[in-house]
């Protein structure tokens, strides 16, 4: 009941603050241009921001899913109890690091490495893949790929913990039955554990996605922030709905139109987050509480 | 979370006794941690009451003056705070770094005593909210570039910069840039104009320079605009880093970052043209009068601040100091309604700005306002000595005269 009231109150405040001002159909388009004091010369498309959001969250989710699955399976099945527990502990520890610290790390330490070393070599090797080619000028210290990397590290603890719990909750009888029938450990993992736990695994993926969609501080620090066009490659600077709201909020207090736009952007983001979470909950009975305890702020 | 994990068996065979034991242990640990936190909390609270508020338990009562806003002003107030409190132990200064937009909106809402901002509040808005623009320091901005082989100061002017940032000039050896730099061999490479991704007073200054210097500028000016070309960076230090990594790039950076700029290989900053150097500007249209290119220095920046004030009759501080105060740029001096006097000051550095504190002209508590005014008067008299610590310049006599008058009009009582 209380969560419903809170959600309702948040939506009500956003609706009142924005007055649901109609920016016209171009709100859903790809043209964003803010000219201070000239609303008629401005255009207010959310498209570029949504693409940036789904691109960074989606790619980091693919990476995080693969890594988390590997981590979860090794600690549940393959590792002896002590190393397994240590691995869980270290992974959980990552969840406790405030997002701004990931941001600073990316901004200061990783950015030069990405811009000068990693991305040029990636382009040489994977240039034929869509997104990995593109103009040299798109390669800089900050950009989409760095944001994807930071987001991946940030959601791994959440997805790993949820996956571990799902894999563990598979009834022992099933596992033992599999082993008794002569299946290898890997076959039991693939055919029994993963199949029985698939709802929980999906839920982990979706909750990780929800977390990645909403991250603002760390992403704003490393993504570059270009908002006028879709990025020509994964190396290029882009932006997301959440990081854009974060970086423009102070200025928006000076420009009423921009403020209203940001509030409506946050309504859209909230809508997406609610849908993702509802779908995630349908998959499993994993308590949201677990996810939020782990997910932390940000 | 940790406790439930610790109780889980690893793979198949682990005993129930172990499970129970570890669960009890973590409950005990949690309880212990809770008690510990409680003790630390009480202790910290006691320490704060006893030591951080020296006069709270006896003697005169301490008042706290609150400020929020510009992240550029914040370090300056932090430097002023201990010096001021040493003289007035009963008044504490509490500044916060939030951003100019927050400074303005908090001052308008009356939730702080002073709202810090890099951009002046338009006089009509200030009047309707009973606020006064109170300049507290002078700052300026550098135009920095990364040109391999050129470490000298290039001459650049507002028109050329506006064209670069709009994509109308795309190469370093463009005739307009070459004309301003006779004898310099400019590279034929493409220019990479770098701008700020986050909202910023620096963007306000630089977009004002573009707006005033070239009539073809189509983005207006403000703390955040949409730049048609070029990559972006977050924060002034982000600008320095990105420019350091971007050959043939150009960027606008607050002068507070001069040390960082000098420490970055390959960077140099430009001398900026006065209004006569502009081509088809709102201010200055080229051809007429001596064209001057000015490097930022304490002298040239201060001259610009004086010129800005001199240019407006009656004097107003609600003015962009870009290009030495702006004849004809009526939308930048909205509501001032003054006429412009001719300039008595040569060589002003054009990319200069005042830093403001917004204060109330009809305070809710006149006795509390007295403490605010005490601080501002002290800052006018002694603050200038601390300005250089944050790369600001002390206010000039003309600005101090204006500020003093403004303070006299604020109603206070004991």
Task: Explain what this protein looks like in three dimensions.
The complex is a heterodimer of chains A (298) and B (414). Chain A has twelve helices and two strands; from the N terminus they run αββααααααααααα. By secondary structure, chain A is mostly helical. Chain A has a single domain, classed as Orthogonal Bundle (MetI-like fold). The longest helix of chain A is centred in the first third of the chain and has 32 residues, at 47-78. Mean pLDDT of chain A is 88; it is low at 286-298. With 414 residues, chain B is an alpha/beta fold. Chain B has a domain at 12-131 and 355-408: Periplasmic binding protein-like II (D-Maltodextrin-Binding Protein, domain 2), CATH 3.40.190.10. Chain B is 40% helix and 16% strand. In chain B, the strands form three sheets. In chain B, strands 1, 2, 3, 4, 6, 7, 8, 9 and 14 form a nine-stranded mixed β-sheet that branches. Chain B has a three-stranded mixed β-sheet with strand order 5-10-11. A two-stranded antiparallel ribbon of chain B has the order 12-13. In chain B, α6 packs across α8. Residues 1-22, 54-58 and 326-346 of chain B have low confidence and may be disordered.
Cα distance, first to last residue of chain A?
24 Å
Classification by helices and strands of chain A: mainly alpha
Strand segment tally of chain B: 14
Q: Name the shape of chain B in a single word.
A: globular
CATH topology of chain A: MetI-like fold
Give the topology, please:
The complex is a heterodimer of chains A (298) and B (414).
Chain A: H1 2-18, E1 32-33, E2 43-44, H2 47-78, H3 81-95, H4 99-126, H5 144-168, H6 172-180, H7 185-196, H8 198-214, H9 217-222, H10 241-252, H11 256-283, H12 288-295
Antiparallel strand pairs in A: 1-2
Helix pairs in contact in A: 1-11, 2-3, 2-5, 2-8, 3-5, 4-5, 5-8, 5-12, 6-7, 8-11, 10-11
Chain B: H1 2-7, H2 16-52, E1 63-69, H3 73-87, E2 91-94, H4 100-109, E3 114-117, H5 123-128, E4 131-146, E5 155-156, H6 158-166, H7 175-180, E6 192-196, H8 201-213, E7 232-233, H9 235-245, E8 249-254, H10 258-263, E9 267-269, E10 271-273, E11 293-294, H11 298-310, E12 312-313, E13 339-340, E14 352-360, H12 366-387, H13 397-408
Parallel strand pairs in B: 1-2, 1-3, 5-10, 6-7, 6-8
Antiparallel strand pairs in B: 3-14, 4-8, 4-9, 4-14, 10-11, 12-13
Helix pairs in contact in B: 3-12, 6-8, 12-13
